[in-house]
Amino acid sequence: MKKILINILLFVGFSVAYGFDEGFIWALRVNFNGTVTLPSINASDIDKIGAAYMKGGVGYTMDGEAELGYLFGSEKWFNGMDPSKFSGMSLFVSLGVGNGFAGQVAGNTIDLGNGSGPQTVNMFINVSYAPVISFGVGTKVYLLNSRLALGFHIGGKLIADLSPEYLAYADQEMPGLPEVGEIIVTDFMVKNMNPVMFSMKFMLEYNQPINDRVEVMLGAYTRFNVYSPGYITMPPSLLAQLILVRPNFTLETPLKSYYINSLDFGLTIGLAFKG
Questions:
Q1: What secondary structure, in 3-state letters, does 236-261 show?
Q2: Please, which residues have CB within 8 angstroms of residue 75's CB and are 6 or more apart in sequence?
Q3: DSSP 3-state of 58
Q4: 41, 122, 190, 196 - which has most CB atoms within 10 Å?
Q5: 127 CB contacts (<8 Å, ≥6 apart)?
Q6: pLDDT digits (tens, 9 = 90+) for 147-157
Q7: Which of 101, 100, 78 shows the shortest CA–CA distance to 88?
């Protein structure tokens, strides 16, 4: 026990002497995300799909990310400022791959034809995408001998899945529901739907040096994604139900006001290497 305690104290003592101060840094990280879908659509477009309102859902995603940046140390680039307070700033680029989630609830008051009269029915659809490719550029402010980093990142996400999986169900008994399957992305969707979403990310990271070349990164972040697909996708079973209410609707009907934004929040863990 005494040996273990001595080794821990030695590790902490040595790690205090280390901290990235200048130069290229590349990193590999894993992000564990909770995500909240925040759909937005105007009254005219929501009427096209036979709904009175639309709400979002909560899901879980995960992605891996590679990052390459350059740290401008405070002593060289910021008039010799004390690195124990302000350690410098970095610029970086990132590229990641993972999965995505979109959860929606569309509701209306309809007559199900079961003799009970008009009822409020909520249709739930959860869609999972894979792969989703993320990319962007950012900056970080390093504090406390580079132990603490505050970052801001702007970029995008590209949905590259041509057969996303879905779970569809309702809070009333409906023909064919619940249902699990794949949404087949047609040639029209490939040519006309927007697959790219814009994202802004805020990060807080703690960096624990292992030696003068390697650090362990632990952090938390939040990311807001703006996405306007231009059209809506749905399982064939839901489309069949929709056409009963809106016979003129097809998957080629444009919905220009339809946004399926989302808010991600999560934890990150990874390794950073000084180049």
A1: HHHHHHHHHHCCCCCCCCCCCCCEEE
A2: 21, 22, 81, 83
A3: strand
A4: 41
A5: 101, 102, 103, 164, 165, 166, 183, 233
A6: 999 999 999 99
A7: 78
Integer-rounded Cα Rg, in Å, for the chain is: 24
SS3 232: coil
94 by DSSP, 3-state: which? strand
Q: pTM of the entire structure?
A: 0.86
CB 60, CB 36: distance < 8 Å: no
Name the residue type at position 75: E
- Characterize the bridge pairing of strands 86-111 and 58-73: antiparallel
User: Residue 122: which residues within 8 A CB-CB, separation 6 or more?
Assistant: 105, 106, 107, 170, 171, 172
Residues with Cβ within 8 Å of 209's Cβ and at least 6 positions away in sequence, in order, are 15, 18, 19, 20, 215
Instruction: State how far the Cα of 4 lies from the Cα of 50, in Å rounded to an integer.
Output: 66
pLDDT tens-place string over residues 211-225: 889 999 999 999 999
Amino acid at 209: P
